[in-house]
């Protein structure tokens, strides 16, 4: 399955941390397959953003007092005045390419069940919709939907 970095990181967070021994062995193997290699980490330059750093290009940006976010003058991305979320990660977007990840059938089932549970509980986020469509319910073309005429 072809996945980008953000999808892989979300998948790692979806995998259960507890269960029976068989499930945990499947999860451990899935973590190794889905996780980022040393080479990928180096190429992507993954890090926590610092104060006044653009989230897309990494440039230092002058941020006015009181502002939390401001457009980057270099690339048009968003710079943060301060980072309060130490779990937020940024990476070099030009190095973020689709990678074919061989997720086994048991791990796929575990991921699909988790996504279905989130959907049933109405806890699915916009960031997870793409994963839901890949693992649970691929979108079908709707022949009844017609483009809006101007």
Specify the structural class. Answer: mainly alpha
Q: Which spans have pLDDT < 50 for at least 5 consecutive residues?
A: none
Q: What's the β-strand tally?
A: 4
Give the radius of gyration.
19 Å
- Strand arrangement, largest sheet? 1-4
Number of domains: 2
Mean pLDDT: 83
Largest sheet: 2 strands, antiparallel
Helical stretch tally? 5
Helix content: 25-40%
Q: In percent terms, what proportion of residues is strand?
A: 5-15%
Our measurement of the CA-to-CA distance between the termini, rounded to an integer number of angstroms, reads 38 Å
Write down the secondary-structure element order.
EHHHEEEHH
Based on Cα principal axes, name the global outline: globular
Structural account:
This protein is mainly alpha-helical. It has two domains: 1-46 and 99-137, no CATH class; 47-90, no CATH class. It is 36% helix and 7% strand. The chain has five helices and four strands, in the order E-H-H-H-E-E-E-H-H. The chain has helices spanning 5-14, 21-34, 38-44, 105-120, 129-135, and strands at 2-3, 69-71, 78-80, 99-100. The strands form two sheets. It has a two-stranded antiparallel sheet with strand order 1-4. Strand 2 (69-71) and strand 3 (78-80) form a beta hairpin. The mean pLDDT is 83.
């Amino acid at each position: 399955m072809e996945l980008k970095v953000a999808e892989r990181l979300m998948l790692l967070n979806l995998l259960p941390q507890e269960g029976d021994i068989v499930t945990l062995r499947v999860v451990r193997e899935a973590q190794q397959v889905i996780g980022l290699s040393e080479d990928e980490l180096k190429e992507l330059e993954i890090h926590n953003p610092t104060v006044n750093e653009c989230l897309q290009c990494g440039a230092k940006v002058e941020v006015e007092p009181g502002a939390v976010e401001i457009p980057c003058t270099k690339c048009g991305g968003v710079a943060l005045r301060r980072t309060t979320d130490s779990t937020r990660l940024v990476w070099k977007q030009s190095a973020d390419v689709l990678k074919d990840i061989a997720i086994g059938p048991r791990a796929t089932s575990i991921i699909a069940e988790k996504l279905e549970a989130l959907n049933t509980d109405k806890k699915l986020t916009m960031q997870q919709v793409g994963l839901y469509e890949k693992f649970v319910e691929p979108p079908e073309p709707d022949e009844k939907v017609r483009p809006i005429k101007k």
